[in-house]
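Fold this sequence, please.
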Amino acid sequence: MTMVCLDMEGVLVPEIWIEVAKETGIEELKLTTRDEPDYDKLMKYRIKIMNEHNLTIDKIQSVIAKIDLMDGAKEFLDKLRKVTNVVIISDTFEQFVKPIAEKLNWPTIICNTLDIDENGRIFDYKLRCEQTKLTTVKAFHSAGIETIASGDSYNDIGMIKNSKAGFLFKSTDKIKHEHPEITALETYDELYDAITKAL
């Protein structure tokens, strides 16, 4: 049995934090896992910036509700789900994903959670486990399930390299240069063909 493990942001939807930054004018929130490999450092920075600007969960959710899928993302995912098992493993948060999941026709999305106070202020976050994507892939392996993985950022490298096949998708030149051993793809047709060949 094989499970295809896809990152969400940068692969199926634009980076949520960049869209929030554009909508709110808070430029500091444009920093993503493509730029900062230390996820804990990145999230602590984001929480500090959000609280400095009184940015609450309601405002963020209103931005997310307006985010469009990347062109061709739903068609790619629908086509892929007809031929294999697919799960989306994301370092986003359960409080963010509902509108995106609906647009993608409700795929399984494994993600993290935010700590939010009664005023809607985000004061902390909880990872499901350390190295969430790599740990999840290894858990599939321990259950006798092979994995094929794809993502665009530093936090995807572990799950990509520990799968029987893995691909960078729409990644940065810097990440592609640092990881020439990983096949880098740019279109959904290329990714679909590469995944189905690896099944």
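The chain has nine helices and seven strands. The mean pLDDT is 96.
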